[in-house]
């Protein structure tokens, strides 16, 4: 059964992962800009990274029949340095015109600091001015609920952002309701030992339904598994759900959200 992985960091994965994902039914991925495991020392480092996302990675994915899209931003973990962050923000509009860029992301908060919030608000402004979709990173562990609340309020303060064009990612049991209740889309990130396991994600689906909800692997350089999206199909089947539920959360919903950007050309068939 075909699916989309709408949040995965393929620059951290081998070509074997592309092959396995294609064999499991993956037809498209979207890759948000994120922390590379170390703090970059200059805006030029981000510029080169954005070139990698927009010019090299789509070619690597295409070898396995997978469409590759991306999102551009300075991530919240590197937003504490306001001077560097604003240098990076200046080059973001150049990349928003690339054919495979769907929007601004993954912006958000890491430790819920004042500087992080400042850069979050400035990047929300970029999305507003350039009419871009937004993909949001929410903090981990005990800071998630607070950080999610701060983020939603920051987006609403802008006044021009349609919550239906914003995906709030890494939701868990204690944050998904506030996200959905306020009209945003919600992403469940499936990690083996953190964020949301496959089993917990299916619990959330059974509790809240499938509207404006999707699953993603966010596979990166840490302990993660790019096959967690198709593994969700197995868990749904084990619990007696038909294939249409997996198709909804893993293909139809991502396609509906992402297709708000006319650059998204994933075939709906």
Summarize the structure.
This protein is α/β, with parallel strands linked by helices. It has helices at 15-24, 43-62, 82-96, 114-129, 144-158, 176-181, 198-208, 228-238, 243-258, and strands at 3-5, 26-32, 67-72, 101-108, 133-137, 166-168, 185-189, 213-216.
What does this structure look like?
There is one protein chain. By secondary structure, the chain is of the alpha/beta class. It has one domain: TIM Barrel, CATH 3.20.20.140. The chain has nine helices and eight strands. The chain has an eight-stranded parallel sheet with strand order 1-2-3-4-5-6-7-8. α2 (43-62) links the parallel β2 (26-32) and β3 (67-72). The longest helix is centred in the first third of the chain and has 20 residues, at 43-62. The termini are close together. The relative contact order is 0.14. The mean pLDDT is 95.
Show the helix and strand layout:
Elements: E1 3-5, H1 15-24, E2 26-32, H2 43-62, E3 67-72, H3 82-96, E4 101-108, H4 114-129, E5 133-137, H5 144-158, E6 166-168, H6 176-181, E7 185-189, H7 198-208, E8 213-216, H8 228-238, H9 243-258
Parallel strand pairs: 1-2, 2-3, 3-4, 4-5, 5-6, 6-7, 7-8
Features:
globular; 269 residues; TIM Barrel; 8 strands; 8-stranded parallel beta sheet
Number of domains: 1
The biggest beta sheet reads: 8 strands, parallel
CATH C-level label: Alpha Beta
Strand content: 15-25%
Task: Give the integer mean of the pLDDT values.
Answer: 95
> Under CATH, the topology is which?
TIM Barrel
The low-confidence runs, each spanning 5 or more residues with pLDDT under 50, are none
Number of helices: 9
Cα-based radius of gyration, to the nearest Å: 17 Å
Indicate the overall shape. globular
CATH architecture: Alpha-Beta Barrel
Give the helix level as a range of percent.
Answer: 40-55%
CATH level 4 superfamily:
Metal-dependent hydrolases
Measure the end-to-end span: 12 Å
User: Order of strands across the biggest sheet?
Assistant: 1-2-3-4-5-6-7-8
Number of strands: 8
The structure class reads: alpha/beta
The ordered H/E elements are: EHEHEHEHEHEHEHEHH
